[in-house]
């Protein structure tokens, strides 16, 4: 389906952040420290729970990550919005991986449930994005997906109906 591989290491993700993976003006990941994953371990446009595409990615947690120092002093917790942003980043990445054109942007999310926290003693986050819809027409390029974040195997975030679009304007 795609001309790109189904796994990406940190160097490839940084290449995407620089706009070098999918081409100038197309889907691009943020640069560190806002890049919320270290590798993509699997991606597709036709697999997943609904057969409409998926992404699995990992983020290594270390006590020296930038957000632990400021959120909150003396009680370090990764902001939940960063986990949500990681899911949005991966949703947009999948659209670019499909070869679809345009810059990505988040449109919204239907529901977010935070059931656990990421503290400095955690080792790894695993992101799961499962597309429920992927649409490309002359006027609209958009993905709708559900997401899950696990910390060391424990589900801590559940997200329904994330929406990400690509726009060439």
Automatic annotation (TrEMBL):
SUPFAM superfamilies: Thioesterase/thiol ester dehydrase-isomerase (SSF54637). One of its GO terms (molecular function) is isomerase activity. Keywords: Cytoplasm, Fatty acid biosynthesis, Fatty acid metabolism, Isomerase, Lipid biosynthesis, Lipid metabolism, Lyase. Its main location: cytoplasm. GO terms for cellular component: cytoplasm. It catalyses: a (3R)-hydroxyacyl-[ACP] = a (2E)-enoyl-[ACP] + H2O. Pathway: Lipid metabolism; fatty acid biosynthesis. Gene3D superfamilies: Hotdog Thioesterase. Its EC number is 4.2.1.59. It holds the Pfam family FabA. It is found in: Cytoplasm. GO terms for biological process: fatty acid biosynthetic process. Homodimer. PANTHER family: 3-HYDROXYACYL-[ACYL-CARRIER-PROTEIN] DEHYDRATASE (PTHR30272), 3-HYDROXYDECANOYL-[ACYL-CARRIER-PROTEIN] DEHYDRATASE (PTHR30272:SF8). Belongs to the thioester dehydratase family. FabA subfamily. This is 3-hydroxyacyl-[acyl-carrier-protein] dehydratase FabA. It comes from Limimaricola cinnabarinus LL-001.
């Amino acid at each position: 389906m795609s001309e790109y591989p189904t796994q990406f290491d940190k160097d490839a993700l940084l290449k995407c952040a620089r706009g070098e993976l999918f081409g100038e003006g197309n889907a691009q990941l943020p640069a560190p420290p806002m890049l919320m994953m270290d590798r993509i371990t699997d991606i597709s446009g036709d697999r997943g729970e609904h057969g409409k595409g998926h992404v699995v990615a990992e983020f290594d947690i270390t006590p020296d990550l930038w957000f632990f120092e400021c959120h909150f002093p003396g009680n370090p917790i990764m902001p939940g919005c960063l986990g949500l942003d990681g899911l949005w980043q991966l949703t947009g990445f999948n659209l670019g991986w499909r070869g679809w054109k345009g810059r990505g942007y988040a449109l919204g999310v239907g529901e977010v449930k935070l059931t656990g926290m990421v503290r400095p003693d955690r080792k790894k986050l695993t992101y799961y994005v499962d597309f429920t819809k992927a649409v490309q027409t002359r006027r609209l390029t958009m993905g709708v997906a559900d997401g899950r974040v696990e910390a060391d195997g424990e589900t801590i975030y559940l997200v329904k109906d994330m929406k990400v679009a690509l726009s060439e304007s």
